[in-house]
Write a structure and sequence with these properties.
The complex is a heterodimer of chains A (587) and B (84).
Chain A (H helix, E strand, L loop, with lengths): L6 H11 L5 H20 L4 E8 L2 E8 L1 H20 L6 H19 L3 H20 L4 H32 L13 H13 L7 H6 L5 H22 L4 H20 L3 H22 L2 H32 L15 H14 L6 H15 L3 H27 L13 H19 L1 H7 L11 H20 L1 H4 L4 E3 L3 H74 L4 H24 L1
Antiparallel strand pairs in A: 1-2
Helix pairs in contact in A: 1-2, 1-4, 2-3, 3-4, 3-9, 3-12, 3-16, 4-5, 4-9, 5-6, 5-9, 6-7, 7-9, 9-11, 9-12, 10-11, 10-15, 11-12, 11-14, 11-15, 12-13, 12-14, 12-16, 13-15, 13-16, 14-15, 14-16, 15-18, 16-17
Chain B lengths: L1 H9 L4 H21 L15 H23 L3 E3 L5
Classes of the chains: A mainly alpha (587), B mainly alpha (84).
Amino acid sequence: MTDWVHPALVFVVGALVLPLLKGRLLQVWLLVIPVAAIAAVAAMTPGEFGGFEFLGVPLLIGKVDKLSLVFAWVFTIMAFIGCVYSLHVHRPAQHVAAFLYIGSALGVVFAGDWFTLLVSWEIMAFASAYLIFASRQAPAVRAGMRYLMVHITGGVLLFGGIVLHGMETGSYLFGPLENSGGLAYTLILVSFILNAAVPPLNAWLTDAYPEATVTGAVFLSAFTTKTAVYVLIRAYPGTEILIWLGAAMALYGVIYAVLENDCRRLLAYHIVSQVGYMVVGVGIGTEMALNGTASHAFAHIFYKGLLFMGAGAVIHMTGRRKLTELGGLYRTMPWTVALYMIGAFAISAFPFFSGFVTKSMVIAAAAGDNRAAVVLMLTVASSGTFLHTGLKLPYYMFFAKDCGLRPKEPPINMLLAMGIAAVLCIGIGLWPGVLYNLLPYPVDYAPYTGAHITGSLGILMFTALGFFLFLKALDPEPTISLDTDWVYRKGARLFMWFAEKPVVRWESMVSTLSDTVIWRSLNAIARGSLKSDQNIVDAIVNGVARTALACGASVRRMQTGVVTHYAGAMIGGVLASIALYVLLRSG
Amino acid sequence: MIKRLVHFFGEGGKSTLRWRLFMASLAAIVIADFLVTRDHGDFFWDFLPGWGAGFGFLSCAAIVFISKFFGHQGGIMRDEDYYD
């Protein structure tokens, strides 16, 4: 009996068996596997496991400490919630992809060396892409291809960085990177912030997540960006540039969310915004900041999952996703509204909800580091978060004008999954100590002070006042917003235009030239050589042949076949030889 | 209960009552912000009662109008068939 079971292994085994099951058995399996993974995490103790040598390089599959455990807890619990939410889906391939995706995310979380990390990273990209393709509509397939291309590029950067890093240091063990001015440091950083969706490398997320299946988007919202945050905490704590990238990112997501009409794309922009807080925490790099980042990632996974589940429930029941085509659903979907709003209060950091005890830790760490501008930027982003996810989206989706639809509440498993996430959002807010105990460093932070509560409520409720006063300006418009994916979406067209116009024109010019000038002159030369061959070379050859023939004929005439003629010729020859000899001797 | 609560926020006939409750909660928050003790703060605004309310309102206004300005004037918002 081994004392350590990698929770990723649980999901891989789960994925292998899944295609054999259907009906009730499939549903039971979907619940058993995440529970087994949670049990595996609960049984873990800090330490190093699964070390071995591969081609002389020491590798380490399982490095367990408090930081990896806090991410493993939230990943496995979210896996359970996501599986409950997708119990009604009878296409095993989607579940297989989800299991491989979660398993590989856990592979990253426990990776003790760069190669284990890289392999898990790549599996994560492919497994998650399937959740986008699985919605089977043309825009989803195109977005999935773009998603895959971007992540393959990121994987190549990471691979290059790892090889260079190994050559520089001689070690492949995963840990903090020193900025020695080498290329490895930059390549790995870029691949990490690509997966964290830091602008301008954010567009893969907001492009692809809203196209995924209803259940797939719930998994997507949880794992990719948060594994990126995890590896940033491990490798780049205290990297100054991350503070500014993170703060800009928090605002970037908020600005785009104002313009957005697609409900899940709006939420996707708020993933960008929320991950911004975590990236700021990594950049500050103090114990409090890293605690803040880890705890905010923990809370974020549940409330963002809940928000995606709420929006997904509406899409599942109505088939519509644009705010301009929704409205008035509160009449028939009150439970969905209530559960969605719990997620919205949590992301907005209302007191007694999870965001209040985690987001504020990052902001307090920035304040403790004396960074006034960052604190103000993050506070503006907090206001924007409530404005969109707590006011604009629910107002136009559930209230506002009546779109005429009267959908029922979603299937009970969807409501149940949302209920579990909602309980966690409130539970973390009410008893933050439980989460704080899981954090990598001892926590010296008290979120519930009078001034913090009234100050936060002031920011949030006066944001609401602004929302109602400026309501007309916020009406969603049937548009899309250009983001940095413009570069490769239009860039690909430019490439195709280049291939179809200048390259094809050049090709046709070359073939015309060859058909006319080159081909004709070659033909003329060939005809000329043929002529000279026939007239000169052949004439010479024929002449020589004729001469040889004539000589041959006269020689043949001399061969009479009569012995006396030959004997006469021999005697004549002997006589001639003697005469020649005598002549030469006497001379 | 949940159903009644959600319906309270949706029904047109309750809008005056909702608006009054909202205003009362805003007033309560500002008053409470003046009453709480402030023994710790990193920046000057941590000691200003009502700062959160004012900053929240201005942030909201700034986000709405600056974003929409960029969206419309900066050419970010396009027709839905832009990429087709």
